[in-house]
Design a protein that fits this description.
The chain has 197 residues and is α/β, with parallel strands linked by helices. The protein contains nine helices and five strands, in the order E-H-E-H-H-H-E-H-E-H-H-E-H-H. It has a single domain, classed as Rossmann fold. The longest helix is centred in the last third of the chain and has 25 residues. The radius of gyration is 16 Å and the shape is globular. The structure holds adenosine monophosphate.
Length: 197
C-alpha cells in the first residue's frame, strides 16, 4: 500500500504513521525527520534546510522531491510506504505522481487528518513539554511563534494539495481531533478496502 497522510502540523500524522507501520509493515517516510537527520549530520542539504525549518517555512520543492525520489527507489520501499509531511505543495504532489508513474506505480489512498487550527498550537506546546520531560530534544519549530508561520505555510501551500487529491478521487478524511486510538480506528476503516486487498 502506498499512502499519503495529509493534515496541518500537530494533526497527528507522525503518531498515526507509526501505528500504520506497526500494523501493516509499511515504511514510514517523513520528510521532516529526514531533513532533521540531514541537519544533524551536517550535510549541505541539511544545513540549508535547518534555517528554513527553524523559521517554519517550507524547504524548496526540488530538495524534498529529490529526497523522496532517492528514498523510494530503495529496496525496502518496494512493499509500500506511508508518506508523512510530503507532499506539502501541489508541485510536490505532481512530482510524486510522475515519479510513481515512471515505475508503473500509483498511490492507493490519501487520508487527511482534519484538525481545528486553534487547538493545534496547544498540542504543539504539549509535545514540546513532553519531549522536555522525557529528556528528548525539543524541536525548535515546536514553539508558538514559529507555529504561526508553519500554519500559514500550511494554509497557503498545503491546503491546495487536498483539493488536488480530491480531484483525483483519492482523498479520504478522518477527524484528527478525536483521541489517538479513535483516530487509528477511523484510519483503519478508511483504508479497509486497501488493507484487505
Ligand atoms: P514536519 O516534521 O513534517 O512538521 O516538518 C518540519 C519542517 O520540515 C517543515 O516545517 C518544513 O520546514 C520542512 N519540511 C518537511 N517536509 C517538507 C516538505 N514536503 N516540503 C517542504 N518543507 C518540508
Amino acid at each position: 500500500m502506498r499512502l499519503v497522510l495529509l493534515g496541518p502540523p500537530g494533526a497527528g500524522k507522525g503518531t498515526q504513521a507509526a501505528r500504520l507501520v506497526e500494523k501493516f509493515g509499511l515504511l514510514h517516510l517523513s520528510t521532516g525527520d529526514m531533513l532533521r537527520s540531514a541537519a544533524e549530520a551536517g550535510t549541505p542539504t541539511g544545513l540549508a534546510a535547518k534555517e528554513i525549518m527553524a523559521r517554519g517555512d517550507l524547504v524548496p520543492d526540488r530538495v524534498v522531491v529529490k529526497i523522496i525520489e532517492d528514498r523510494i527507489a530503495e529496496k525496502d520501499a518496494a512493499n509500500g510506504f506511508v508518506l508523512d509531511g510530503f507532499p506539502r505543495t501541489v508541485a510536490q504532489a505532481q512530482s510524486l505522481d510522475a515519479m510513481l508513474a515512471a515505475k508503473g506505480q500509483k498511490l492507493d489512498a490519501v487520508v487527511e487528518l482534519e484538525a481545528d487550527a486553534e487547538k493545534l498550537v496547544d498540542r504543539i506546546v504539549k509535545r514540546a513539554e513532553e519531549a522536555k520531560r522525557a529528556g528528548l530534544p525539543v524541536r525548535k519549530d515546536d514553539d508558538p511563534a514559529v507555529f504561526a508561520t508553519r500554519l500559514a505555510a500550511y494554509r497557503a501551500q498545503t491546503a491546495p494539495v487536498s483539493a488536488y487529491y480530491r480531484g483525483t478521487g483519492l482523498l479520504k478524511a478522518v477527524n484528527g481531533m478525536e483521541p489517538i486510538d479513535a483516530v487509528t480506528r477511523a484510519l483503519g476503516t478508511a483504508l479497509e478496502r486497501h488493507t484487505h486487498a
